[in-house]
Write a structure and sequence with these properties.
The chain is mostly beta strands. The protein contains 2 helices and 8 strands.
């Protein structure tokens, strides 16, 4: 099985209502270049008994990096907790968001689409680099690092496979509260 490309990153404000995760204000987050998800696990083995040979780990958090062609200005308040005036301040505080994206999967020559939703993540502004053209073209794209944690229901990631790209996009958009485009 091969995964090919990543497209249509989406973010939405995360909140909790009646013990459930709720998302609102979903927007598309530029064009995806790369998404990295690196789950981290905590050792919760019980070593109290000399005969205990079981090792056990549980999910702790996941480091996430979104590399996109841009960070839309309307996403900055949601991602970085700043005012919509574009000014970064010392007291800016990121809030939690849900993150979704789609990739194409090819297995035995059959193409299907995998939609992934990260339930609860907090991002911070990544480093940026700006340089003159020089002797060759050098493209700089923003990288947004973050950390995913389990939501109020204990979920941190959901993956779902679809026959068409449109079905995968619709599933992500419905979670994020994005209205269908005509």
């Amino acid at each position: 099985m091969a995964y090919i490309g990543v497209v249509r990153p989406v973010i939405a404000v995360y909140s909790e209502e009646n013990g459930k995760a709720v998302y609102s204000g979903g927007i598309r987050f530029g064009k995806a270049i790369k998404v990295e998800i690196d789950p981290q696990y905590e050792d919760v083995s019980d070593y109290n008994d000399i005969n205990d040979t079981g090792e056990d780990e549980e999910f702790s958090y996941a480091d996430i990096t979104l590399d996109t062609d841009e960070i839309p200005e309307e996403a900055e308040p949601m991602l970085f907790g700043r005012e919509p005036d574009g000014i970064s301040r010392e007291n800016d505080r990121s809030g939690y968001v849900g993150v979704g994206f789609r990739t194409r999967r090819v297995k035995n020559g059959r193409v299907r689409y995998l939609a992934i939703w990260i339930h609860k993540a907090k991002f911070r502004e990544g480093s940026s680099s700006h340089e003159t053209k020089g002797g060759s073209i050098s493209y700089q794209t923003p990288s947004t690092p973050g950390k995913a944690v389990p939501d109020v229901e204990g979920k941190w990631k959901t993956k779902k496979t679809f026959e068409t790209a449109e079905e995968a996009d619709s599933w992500i958009d419905s979670i994020a509260g994005i209205e269908r485009e005509d």
